[in-house]
Amino acid sequence: MRSTVSQRTLKRVNRWKLVALLSLLGGCFLIILSVENLLLSSLIAFVVSYTFGPGVNFLERHGTSRTLGTLILFALGGGMMLLFFWGIAPYLGETLLRLKDDMPRFIEGVSRFISELESRVQGIAGPLANIDLTSRVETVLTTNTSRFFEGLPSYLKTFITVMLLGPFLAFFMVKDGRTMMRTVLGLVPNHLFETALSMLSQINTQIGQFVRARLLESIIVGLVTSAGLFMISFPYAVLLGITAGVTNLIPYLGPIIGAVPAFLIATVNQYSSLDIALVATVYIVAQLIDAGFLIPLLVAKIVDLHPVTVIIVMIIGAQVLGILGMIISIPVASTMKVVVSTLYRHMIDTRT
Amino acid sequence: MNFMWDNLFRRTDQGQEVFEALRQTFVFQTLSKKELRFVQDTVHVRGFKAGEAVFRQGEVGVGMYILLRGSLDIFVDHPVEEELPPRSHLVTRLKGGDFLGELSLVENNSRRTATAIAAEDSILIGFFKPDLLEILERQPATGVKILFRLSEVLGRRLKETTVKVTELKEEVRRMSERV
Predict the structure, then answer these.
(1) A3, A17, A183, A190: best mutation site toward chain B, by most B Cβ within 10 Å?
(2) Do B46 and A193 touch (CB under 8 A)?
(3) Out of A1, A57, A194, whose CB is closest to B128?
(4) Which residues in chain A have Cβ-Cβ distances shorter than 8 Å to B51?
(5) Contact, B59 vs A348, CB < 8 A?
(6) For every residue of chain B, which 3-state class applies, written as one string?
(7) Domain boundaries, chain B
(8) Is B52 on the interface with A (CB under 8 A)?
(9) pTM value?
């Protein structure tokens, strides 16, 4: 019992413990990546659990047990989602059908617009600028549009799976997240335990604040855009508002990507310059509210990343996971920043 | 089969042991049974081999430890000469029920002021700043009780330190008079 373990043996045991822990975490990550829809469901679960967590804590502070608090909030959230989809589903379905019918006209309009642009460029630059963009763009648009509408049932299936699996995982993350975290921390070697605990706590706080802030920002931008487009009687107001809200999650590029469909619709339908100016005003007002109030109040300082870092991680995210990668690149980068800075501090501490 | 049952009951025994240790620790003495159960679900039970360091002097600490089983040697490093490594000096040996490192619970970027090494195979209960913050977030009344007791401990330590500093000052004054 009293025999002292040599430092060498301790180091070896700790190294093996660390290897086992990292292998376990790596294995879990690989499973999440390889099982269909699990990555998206896990991300939804994280977002839901970070959104509902403070609410459950609030109920717990007022004497409700954690299980009951989680049940109450999930029942309320689920009910509201059901009501929302029940109310909006017929409108969304009708809008999508209208969009499907209008699509050939839009493609034709875009082709005409590009063709005019091409002839103007040729008029200035002569035969040097003979690039025949029109037919290429028309082919790409037609193929992708028909692929989108053909794939719509499968997207719907994925959506339903993710919307069922995500909240299911989130329920247990909110209710038992702490126990799960303690179990994982139990596997961390002693010499790294305090560092790991402190690091996880920092990441948890930072990502939680970031997710809640971005979600609120996205909802407000989406609502403002929808309301503005609705007020000027622009078609597909709700769909365009949802698009603007979702794409707004992509830093810098998101607002532009979100506005493109509205301008395409306006151009193809040959709206007057005044109408196009009104559409532009709606998007500019939404962005002014975002940049002037929402970002300074909600998002800034939560994730302290340099703009160049943001651009680089976004490009990497886009390369690896497309639009989803662009959206999650910032929280992933800020997590990496916390991990690296905490481990660096730990290394400096243990050396001095 | 017996081995399985042994393990099952050992775990329950340890749970009870942790509960008792928390109940007897000064910081948690004012908590009700329900509150103690909540704290028990928050703390971390860690095993250390004889000779293994719990923490080292100068490292950043994030919380306190309560000694559940075994014993800990507390060393303080004293610098000898600039180029030589500091010499460690055994200050005390802690036994079951003792607690250490409570200052780290309230101080930001707190550095450990001594090194704690397990004198034999030991089991410790770790209670850290993120755990305290979670208790304050989920059950503020419990958190406030803990913080109140913690400030009592820190106040008592401050008083002891003030008395020691006064004694040392007196000693220095007397020595300088003699010189």
Answers:
(1) A190
(2) yes
(3) A194
(4) 4-7, 10
(5) no
(6) CHHHHHHHHHHHHHHHHHHHHHHHCHHHCCCCHHHHHHHHCCCEEEEECCCCEEECCCCECCEEEEEEECEEEEEEEECCCCCCCCEEEEEEEEECCCEECHHHHCCCCCECCCEEEECCCEEEEEEEHHHHHHHHHHCHHHHHHHHHHHHHHHHHHHHHHHHHHHHHHHHHHHHHHHC
(7) 2-178
(8) yes
(9) 0.77
The structural domains of chain A, with segments of one domain joined by +, span: 37-178
Interface contact A190-B54, CB threshold 8 A: yes
> Is residue A168 within 8 Å of A48, Cβ to Cβ?
no
Token readout for B150 is: 């913690």
Q: Which residues of A touch B14 (CB under 8 A)?
A: none
| A301 confidence band (pLDDT: 50, 70, 90) | low
- Please write the tens of the pLDDT for every residue from A42-58: 988 988 999 999 999 99
The span from the CA of A332 to the CA of A325, in Å, is 10
Instruction: Check: CB of residue A317 under 8 Å from CB of residue A332.
Output: yes
Q: Which of B42, B63, B138 sits opposite A57 (nearest CB)?
A: B138
Q: Using one digit for the tens of pLDDT, what is the confidence trace for A264-279?
A: 888 877 788 888 899 9
Class of domain B2-178: mainly beta
Q: Tell me which chain A residues have a C-beta less than 8 angstroms from the C-beta of B120.
A: 1-2
Size of interface A-B (CB pairs under 8 A): 71
Query: Is residue A186 within 8 angstroms of chain B, CB to CB?
Result: yes
Tell whether the torsion through CA atoms of A109, A112, A117 and A120 is positive or negative. Answer: negative
Which structure tokens are listed for B41? 């679900």
pLDDT tens sequence across A322-335? 777 887 888 888 78
